[in-house]
Amino acid sequence: MRRILGMSVLLAEIVVGVAAFGGTQGSKPTSSSVSVTTTVYDYDGGGVELLMRSDDYNGSGQATYPSAIVNGELDISLLKQSLRTLWITPNDPVGSSEPAGPPAGYYSQGVQSLSRCFDQTGNTVPLQNVTTWSGNCKLGINFDSGGTLYKLLMSPFPFSGAGDGTPICPSTGCPPTGVVTVTCHKVSNSQCFSWAIVPNASAPNANAANLYYYSPKGRTTTWVFIGQYYNTFRIEVTNP
Question: Which of 10, 75, 195, 227 is the most buried (most CB within 10 A)?
Fold first, then answer.
């Protein structure tokens, strides 16, 4: 298995409390959770290496991860463990003026990836209800580097979170990002149970994600914008 990138452990309670940044502006859904099988690939369909990829723990060129669909949102969580990792690339800048991001590498501490879809007004569309496809989805990945919690977020709503406050942005505002496409492969009883998740290549700002770091201030969640960096990924999900 690939080498785990060493770093200090951030409190899991903090990670869970800030994981949903970049979410819907609609009402909070009824709590529900179902375990799913999630495969993260190392290459896209054309053989190009991806910027977010697996640790090849139980496969070659791919790996499956413990995950669940919670309130209609895919949750890949590597919290409170050190065996499994994800390769994350938070330092591939969109523009020449972006500051240096954390190093690319295999991360385990504080890692949690969340993906869900939205309607045009910002309300969550549960993944089970995406029975064809949606190009209006998000993927965020939290990770700890050097004791600091970061978030790399691609979302149609990158400026505010559900109960998580508003990020500190430049005077011009945090720039818009690319968005994510979720495609349903199989439907049963009007519910999808198999999905593919990739960046929306036809939308504006394709593959661009905003990078933030978490700055705790008492009980207030504060995310501080750093810059824009590319992210690419290919994820397959099935239930069960």
Answer: 195
